[in-house]
Amino acid sequence: MRRSLITLGTNKKPNGDVSADEVKQEKLTHVKSENMESEQMTTERKPPQTHTIALRPRISRRVKKELTQSPKKTNTSLTPSFRPEQKVNTTPVKVKKEEVGSSQDASLQESPKVDENKDPAMVRISPRKRNSESPIKSPKKMKNHLQKDAKSNLDDSESNISDDEPESFNYAEMREKNLRENELFFASLGIDQAKEALQLSVTKPKKPTQKGLKVKKEPVEILPRRKSLRIKRIDPEGNQLPEPEPVVSVVEETRLPAGPAQMEDCLFSKHAPDPDKYLSSFKSQMSSLKGEIVGHVSEVSKFSSGLSRMSIVDGGVAKVVPDRVFSVTWHPAISPLIAIAGDKWGKVGLWNVMSQDEEQMVTAFKPHTRPVSCLMVPPDAQHKLYSSSYDATLRCGDFEKGIFNEVFSVPEQNDDLFRNFCFYDESRTMLVSHFSGNVSLIDVRTSNTSAEQVFKVSQKSLRTVSVHPTQRHYFITAGTDTNICLWDIRKMSQKSPKPLQVLSRHSRAIASAYFSPLGHKIVSSAADDTILVFNVPSPFSGADIELWRTIKHNNCTGRWLTNFQPTWHPTVPYVFVVGSMARPREIQVFDASLGKVLHTLTNEDHLGSVCSLNVFHPQKPCTLVGANSSGRLHVFQDKW
Q1: DSSP assignment of 591-618, as one string?
Q2: Could you tell me which InterPro entries the record lists for this protein (predicted)?
């Protein structure tokens, strides 16, 4: 059997003669076949092993070409000739050069014939000639062939292991070769030589000569850091200023207990030597004040002549309350002139304008704990002072009794507040506007502090309520819903009241809306920088109110100023007064019939701030008081 396998590799001549070379080659083949059989016997004893094909890294095209064309690196002479039907193990086997003689290439010219019925494991594949071209012409194709043959080799564990397979590629050597070639390529470009030549061509600037006069550098004097005189508390003349007063944070207080409060307990200005004696004299003075309302002036021209002579006289400015003024009014009496103001934290100050005593000219009380939103002295009860506040209480200061009586209030936990009030039936009943959108009907004669009736007139906050002066069952409301609504209290229901007319002329929140003293006009101001004047028909039947004048006016007072509220003159028809943001500071008096400014009140010496709230005296047509946001009042009077 061995002899038959060996003879398969020999080529005998037809006549049976054998040359010397062929005998020599046959002996070499015999020795080699024995070595192969011994190695095969040792491999058959071991269990079959599976071989993993390691995919080579990506190789550039130039390297692939050199690998396929160079016979020294690829050993194309030893590459076996694969056939589709053969199953060959893909395990790389190094072939020793000593085993392959030089005569092998000359003797083996043709591949042996293989019988298909024989065991493929016993078939020996002969190598091709050294100069023959390999069927695998690139490493990529070789990898594909090896992968296909590896799949077939896994099914047959006894496949033949050929000793003529090509050598495995040494990737480390290939990488080193690529690095050397890259270095040679960059060296051929001459980059290093150009860099050195450029460095040599650039000459460094020479240092200036040190010969001659030498200048010594003096050390720079470090000046002290500059600080402003304001931080040093020094005035421009160099005098030391006093230390500023410490800022005390204001803590909101709870409102006063329910029921009447004694004026002695509410007295805020206790600067007099004997407060009790001073308060008793003040109460007696206030209770004795009486005044009568004079008739309305029919001619505006007569009022204009006195208006042009109005100015702030000496002593016409005083600080009446500590904080920003939210409400201001006059006492109806002529002598003495008493201006009344309410500030942000519930204090009410009364200023005797004609007094020369600086210590006793102002008397302040604290009947509330939140902003005082409205003040009023009824004409038929001038010894009383009504005040409403954001602490949801309405009190009556009775100077005859010396108490601040609680007239109306809502629970403090309701978080409601009172905006303003207006007498409905002389000094017995009144209407109160709420932050919650309600209007309450109050009877001041009862001891009960609850409302007689409550009407839900708006879903948003109200700002003002105003009663018609002649037909008191009509009243208007205005608020943040940008509407002015006309109501008839005789036809209102508490569950779902319906207005008689809705005036939707403003585009932003309304600050105030009031009937004129005769009831012929309505003036309103809003955050849309307009002042509107509406015409009320006479006789008034509860409808047909029309827009009459539109006046452009800057109403953007900001956060720290009280909103402008145009106020009618109590005795001169069609005249109202309003504050202004213009500089120099001024107070504007308008003629509603013309829709123009009638006169502006200015004073460079005493008027230096914005007077948001302004009121004319009810008995002195040419006397006006203006209040700013620092608690000061400014009084303009006719010089004559």
Answers
A1: ETTTTEEEEEEE-TTT--S---EEEE-S
A2: WD40/YVTN_repeat-like_dom_sf, WD40_repeat_dom_sf, WD40_rpt, WD_repeat_DNA-damage-binding
